[in-house]
Amino acid sequence: MYNFKRIGMNEIERIKELFTSVFTVEPWNDDWSNQEQLDLYLSDLVGQSNSLTFGLFEDEQL
User: Fold this and answer.
1) Looking at the DSSP assignment, which residues form a beta bridge with residue 27?
2) Which end of the chain is more exposed for a tag (fewer CB within 10 A), N or C?
3) DSSP secondary-structure letter at 60?
4) CA 4 to CA 55: how far, in whole Å?
5) What is the pTM of this model?
6) Helix/strand/coil (H, E, C) string of 6-49?
7) Percent of the chain scored above 70 by pLDDT?
8) What is each CA distance from 1 to 8, 28, 56, 62, in whole angstroms?
9) Separation of alpha carbons 3 and 42, rounded Å
């Protein structure tokens, strides 16, 4: 079953895993090997007080 729910910094490890699995391959081929840069980037997206971030979950998998 699919659920659409709000996510935040408490899900950051799951977000990092999904983000890198998507954006390090075709068609993007981005280099996100620098963990500090990745943490800062995702914190800017997800960790701000005005951030509205949602995830699509299948059972409990993002």
Assistant:
1) none
2) N
3) T
4) 6
5) 0.88
6) ECCHHHHHHHHHHHHHHHCCCCCCCCCCCHHHHHHHHHHHHCCC
7) 100
8) 21, 29, 10, 12
9) 22
